[in-house]
Amino acid sequence: MASIQIENARKSYGAVDVLHGIDLNISDGEFIVLVGPSGCGKSTLLRMIAGLEDITSGAISIAGTVVNELQPKDRDIAMVFQSYALYPHMSVAENMSYALALRKTAKEKISDAISGVAEILGLTALLDRRPKALSGGQRQRVAMGRAIVRKPQAFLFDEPLSNLDARLREQMRTEIRKLHRRLGATSVYVTHDQIEAMTMADRIVAMHDGIIQQVGSPVEIYDRPANIFVASFIGSPAMNFLEGSYEIADATTAGIRLSDGALISVLPVADAKPGQAITLGARPEHISIVADAQSGGLPAKVELIEPMGLSTLVHVTLAGKPIKIFTMDRPDYPVDSFIHIAFDMAKIHVFDTASEKRLPPANAAGILT
Amino acid sequence: MNTGTQTGKLPVERRGGFSRKFSGIIEPYLYVSPALVLIIAVMLMPLILGLSYAFRDIRILNPFSGGFVGTAHFEALISDQAFLDALANTAWWTFGSLLFQFGLGLVLALLLNRQFLGRRLVQALVFLPWAVPTFLSGLNWAWMFNPVVGPLPHWMTSLGLMAEPFNILSDPDLAMWGPIIANIWFGIPFFAITLLAALQSIPKELYEAASIDGATTRQQFISITLPFLAPTIAITLMLRTIWIANFADLIVVMTNGGPADSTQIVASYIFTQAFRRLDFGYASAIAAVLLVLLLAYALSVIALRRAMTHTDS
Asked: What molecular function terms (GO) are annotated for this protein (chain A) (predicted)?
C-alpha cells in the first residue's frame, strides 16, 4: 500500500489543455473518489496515474517514487475498467492469474492466491468459465479479482459500476467499500455518479473543466460546497438557485432581494457589499411549506407533485425560477395553485454571482461555515 | 333446409381444404423458385455439364468426338507427367504466394493499425493493386522482370543477387518466382484489409489492462492480438488458398506456363488443355480432380477449425 502525490500535473492534447495543474495528496489506505461531469478530466487524471496517458508537465509519485517515466507495469498498480476489459479467450482463473504468470510466480502460489480471492468474491464456482458465460455482475467481480490477486500498491477504478443495473450497482458499492476496509488498499475511484461519490469516498475530489473544484469528506462537500458548480453537482435532487442582490438589515440578519421584489433572509456574510449580485442556494430539504405569508412564507406556484415513495418532491416556481421542495408529508396541492414556502435561514448558501464562490456566514458560532 | 345446405356445402369445403393444403405445400417453393431456377441454371447445370465432359471425348476440332469414354481421361491423368508436375507446381505456387501474402499482409495491417499522419490516405492506397486488372498487372510485372525494359534485374544485379541482369521468367528454375512475386503484390491488400478490420475490433482496454498486468508488446501480441485474429486468419487463409490454387491469370499472362512447363499449375494446365489444345474432355477431367482436391482441403480445414473451437468451449 502506498500514498500517491500529484503535483501540478497538467495534460494537453496539442493546443487543448485537459488538466490545468492538479495538486492532490492521497494518503496511504485512503479511498478517494474523483467525481465530475463527463469531460472534466477525471478519467484522464486516473489514466495518468496508471501510466496509460503521458503527463504533459508536473509530477505524479506513488510511494514516494516519481512515476512520470515509468511504464504502467512498473508502477505496481491495478486498474478496474468500465468495460471490465477481461481477456475473452481466457477462463476466469486465467484472467486472474495472467499478471502473476507474467511475473513468473510459482504455480502453487498462483493457485493459492486465486482460490483465496475467488473465495472472497464468490467466484469459486466460476473459475473455469469464460467471461462471455458470465453475467455483468460476475464479470465485474472477475475484474476486481484480477486487480486484487496482484496485491498492488494502489487500486484504480474507472467508472467500474456504470454498466450495471441500479440494484446491482448499489450492491457492488457496498461490496467494494467492504473490500476496501478489508484490504486497506489505497484506492482512486472515478465516477460521474455523485451518489457513488457520497456513499463510497473517504474524500471526494470534485472536478470540473480540468480543475479541482473542492476536496473534502462527503459531508463537508455536501454541507459546505466551495462554489456553485460543486453545490449543483453534489446532491440529488439538486440544489435550488435564485439570483438577487445583497441587502443588510442588521447585525444578525441580511437578505437577498429577488427580481420580483421578494426578500429572503440569510445570515450576514463577511465579504458581500449591499447591492452585490448574489446567487442563493437552497437544498430541497431546506425549504419548507408554511401555512401563509404571516409565517414568513413567500407565495409560489405549484407546477408538479412528484411522489418518490419515502418522500415527495414538490416543484414550484418562485420569482420565475423553478424550485424543488423535499417533504416527508404527502401533499396534494392542485397544479397552478399557490402555496407559501420558507427558507431555512441557517442552511442557505450565499454565492457571489460573479466569481461563483461560496461566501461563508460572518458569525460562525453554532452554524455551518 | 338445414341438412340440405350442409350436405350441399360439405364437398365444397372438402375440396377447398384439399386445395388449400396443396397450395400450402407448394407455396414456399413457388416463392423460392425464381432463385432456385437461377441457381440451377447458372451454377448447377454448368457444373454437371462440366463434370459430364470429363467422361466424354470432346475435342472441338474433331467433329466425330463427343462419345462416352468412361474413366479413360482419369486413367490418362495418372500417367500424365505434365499433370503431376503441374500438381507440384500448384502447391509451390499456392503456398509460396500464400505465406508471403499473409505474412506481409499481417505486418501491413499492424502498421496501418497505428496512428500516423496520412493514415487514411495510405489505407486507401493499399487497395490499389486490386484496382488494376490482373491482366495489366501481369503484363507490368513481366516487363519489370525484363532486363531490356524493366528495372528489377538491374537492381538485383546491383544488390549482388544476380551476376548479370537476366530475365528470371526465362529460367526454368526461377521462373515461378516471377508470378509468385506478382501474386504477393496482388494479394497483400486482401490480408491487410481483412486483418486490419479484425485488429480494429479488438477493444483498446484489453491492451491497457495487459500493459498494467505487466505484458510486454510481444506478450500482448501473443495473448491478445493473435487469439482475436485467429478466426479471421483461419477463414482468410482457407479462402485464399482456394482462390490462389484456381488463379491462373498471372501465370498465363507472364509465362504462359513456360519455360518448358516449369510454371504450369493445374489451373493453367486446364486452360492450356481446353483453349490451346481444344481438348475439353481432358480439361474437364483435370478440373474435376482439382475440384475434389480443393473440396477435400476445405472440408479438412473446416473440420480442423470445428475441432479447435470445440476444445475452446
From this structure: ABC-type transporter activity; ATP binding; ATP hydrolysis activity
Instruction: Tell me how far apart the alpha carbons of residues B291 and B280 are, in angstroms, rounded to a whole number.
Output: 16
pLDDT in tens, A58-82: 999 999 899 999 999 899 999 999 9
Residue B209 in any domain: the answer is: yes
In order of A46, A132, B206, the CA distances from A85 in angstroms are 16, 12, 5
Residues spanned by the domain of B244: 73-312
Interchain contact B208–A (C-beta under 8 A): yes
The pLDDT tens digits of the residues spanning B142-196 come to 999 988 888 988 998 899 888 888 888 888 888 888 899 999 999 899 999 899 9
Is the Cβ–Cβ distance between B142 and B169 less than 8 Å? yes
Q: Which residue in the set A81, A89, A102 is minimally distant from B209, CB to CB?
A: A81
- Is the same domain home to B154 and B182? yes
Mutation target for B interface from A43, A44, A67, A83: give the one with most B CBs within 10 A: A83
B82 and B150 belong to one structural domain? yes
ipTM associated with this complex: 0.83
Interface touch B212/A98, C-beta < 8 Å: no
Residue range A237-352 forms a domain whose CATH class is mainly beta
Question: Total domain count for chain B?
Answer: 2
Q: Is residue B65 part of a domain?
A: no
Chain B contacts of A43, Cβ < 8 Å?
none
Of the residues A44, A54, A77, A79, the best mutation for testing chain B's interface (the one with the most B CB atoms within 10 Å of its CB) is A79
- Is the distance from CB of A4 to CB of A61 less than 8 angstroms? yes
**Residue B282 maps to a domain:** yes
CB-CB contact of B121 with B127 (8 Å):
no
